[in-house]
Amino acid sequence: MQLIDTHVHLNFESFQDDLPEVAQAWRDAGVVRLVHSCVEPSEFSRIQAIANCFPEIAFAVGLHPLDADKWTDQTAAQIQNLAQSDQRVVAIGEMGLDFYKADDQEQQVEVFRAQLAIAHALGLPIIVHCRDAAVEMQRILTDFFSQVGSVTGVMHCWSGTPEETEAFLALGFYISFSGIVTFKNAHQVQASAQAVPSDRLLIETDCPFLSPVPKRKERRNQPAHVRFVAEKLAELRGVSLEAIATQTTQNACRLFGVTVPTPCASSGL
User: Residue 159 above 80 pLDDT?
Assistant: First the structure.
């Protein structure tokens, strides 16, 4: 069985002391590929260095909406140049809108539009962060698609309603579920997870955040725990874990243009 964790932050301080052990754990759990997201371009060299040590890691470059105030006149060129500097860059992001307690909505929208343009120009998918901003997100994407052209991508760590889920599916997006889907009271997220077509479904940890059940007591989440997300999706959708693993792995390979080892070369997992 092969799994792909489509959203990790291994450059964060909580992984500084034991990343080789964390890597062994994800390999033991059957995780054969990871997509490392980027909060701001200054992280790029550190993410690149991590990927140099662990060849199963692909990565993205972008600016998170909560860091929109760091955008300058040079940021767009910086992101585009970094994206073109390394063939392991498979996406632009994470990017998007976060209107939870936000007082910079206009700036976030401007930065989001700028990164959409980069992704479209480079033909790369986007990794989308969307919190309390689904209506505005849909409007911006619809306008961009009609005026400039479409982009593909993933709504990461998705927690929206089934209706919001359908709207982003209609725009061509994949939907990725994190440990939130395993939480006892996450009824809305679980309903959305049941509604996503099998060919648009992805899994992630968003580590070091959002440890899934049964690892909720572990303060630090890690890629090996993506298996528990897959198990919950299998339960909700009435299919086997192996079916979820196969489908989400195929979907991640298609979206991000990555490959995985053939089963005979995957250490028996």
Answer: yes
